[in-house]
Amino acid sequence: MQEIQALYQSHLNVLLEDSYRLLEAQGFDGLLVASGDPKPCFLDDHDYPFVVNPHFKRWLPLTDNPYCYLLLRIGQRPRLLYHKPADYWHAAAGEPSGYWVDSFDIELVADETAALKALGQWDLRRVACIAEEVQLAEHLPDIELNPPGLLAAMHYGRACKSDYELHCLREANRIAVGGHLAAREAFFGGRTELEVHLAYLAACGCTEAQSPYGNIVAFNENAAILHNDRYGTVAPPQRHSFLIDAGATFEGYIADITRTYAANKGTFAELVARMDLEQQGICGEVQAEVDFVALHERMHHRLASVLSDSGIVTCDADTAFAQGLTRLFFPHGLGHLIGLQTHDVGGWQMNAAGDQYPVHADYPALRLQRTLQPGMAVTIEPGLYFIDQLLEPERSSSLLNWPLIDELRPCGGIRIEDTLVATATGAENLTRPAFVELG
Q1: Domain for residue 154, yes or no?
Q2: What share of residues in the chain are helix, strand, coil (percent, to 5)?
Q3: How far is residue 232's CA from residue 258's CA, in Å, rounded to a whole number?
């Protein structure tokens, strides 16, 4: 408790200093951040699961409470409207508690109406507001809602993490690794995709709604569906492979981990082992001042060697890369920023002003095109898939070993993903140490 409290206080102090400087530069005296509103299902009487505004949870680890508002005024102590309803229909938030509460002046409000009434009594002139609720502008005419320049600068800066944020990311990875180990055991124990998914959630101690994204649990050819989220309820007659892409959260910060397993020894198992080596190899190239697009392209060179050495292509690695064959097997980006969101914002930004990189001509699915900086948290997740939609149009190509590809097609594909933090001398892997510790 004392460790995280000290880390949080340092994080908050720096965040306040940086935000005040940014607000002054943008012509504002303050910032109002909403936690968010529940969203009702269309023509129904219940809400979608609540998802907190990521800008709100950067300030405090309050992730499950709507109708909260944080006001930051330059030179003043932060103020928090804390939603504490009297509600017997739903589980409601309790008293504010935890290592963060002493950093805020807290006022309790019973519901959305009370929160808006309290906001109406605050001086909100020259205050920027970050919120999804456009109706706020109707109730609070003095605020400027989601100013683009301010959002761009905040998004750009979120890529580099404080020590508190890195602590939260490490803990999120530890939680997720516990789930991955349980899922692996369930797969080799003969469970269905749905049962593996449920074993993962149970090990992490969370519900689907509390997960950062929908778990990807894929047996056999389903591993070629990059975002497979329809879990089979019947065990396949024959098991070839298992791919799981599943995460967890700690204090609002996210882990995003992928592992692939071969059910039996043989060619596919050898491919998994080789891809694991290449993933670790490209992780070893992560460092501050490295251009992520160049890193992505170097992974394609590595994959070309895998394809050539395994006989999946009939040419050498240089030819495979030059002919674009690797893109048939690895259609997504090498990774993305991660933190408050799974695919954290700012990956396409050239600068804090919000200028964007154009879509890359050769790699349009890239989510990150920036040069890495110290403290930048990224995922590294190369893949090798057998996807019919990409391969079948090339059926006439003599550069592809079709008998071997058809043999491997029932295995679906391979993805291996860790989270790394760039430093001046290399990178810290936040994922693999947890597997060593818990596995």
Answers
A1: no
A2: 40, 20, 45
A3: 19
| Inter-residue contact 419 to 177 (CB < 8 Å) | no
Tens digit of each residue's pLDDT (9 = 90 or more) over 42-100: 999 999 999 999 999 999 999 999 999 999 999 899 999 999 998 878 888 889 999 99
Q: Which domain holds residue 72?
A: 2-146
Alpha-carbon distance of 383 to 279, in angstroms, equals 9
Beta bridge partners of 254: 249
pLDDT tens digits, one per residue of 284-316: 999 999 999 999 999 999 999 999 999 999 999
CA-to-CA distance for 404 and 402, rounded, in angstroms? 5
**Number of folded domains that form the chain:** 2
Q: Are strands 383-385 and 377-380 parallel, antiparallel or unpaired?
A: unpaired
Write the CATH number for 53. 3.40.350.10
- Residue 55, SS3? helix
User: Domain containing 204 — which CATH number?
Assistant: 3.90.230.10
Nearest by Cα to 9 from 122, 106, 102: 102
Report field, pTM of the whole predicted structure over 0.85? yes
Q: Are 381 and 334 in contact (CB under 8 A)?
A: yes
Same domain, 35 and 134: yes
Both structure tokens of 324: 């674009």
Structure tokens at 341: 């969101």
335 and 219 share one domain: yes
Phi, psi of 228 (to 5 degrees): -65, 115
Distances (CA, A) of 282 to 21, 159, 301, 375, 380: 37, 20, 11, 18, 8
pLDDT of 87: 84
54 half-sphere exposure, CB direction, 13 A CA radius: 16
Please check whether residues 301 and 245 belong to one and the same domain. Answer: yes
In a domain, residue 151? The reply is: no
> What are the pLDDT digits (tens) for 193-242?
999 999 999 999 999 999 999 999 999 999 999 999 899 999 999 999 99
In a domain, 152, yes or no: no
Residues 244 and 369 grouped into a single domain: yes
Residue 238 lies in a domain: yes
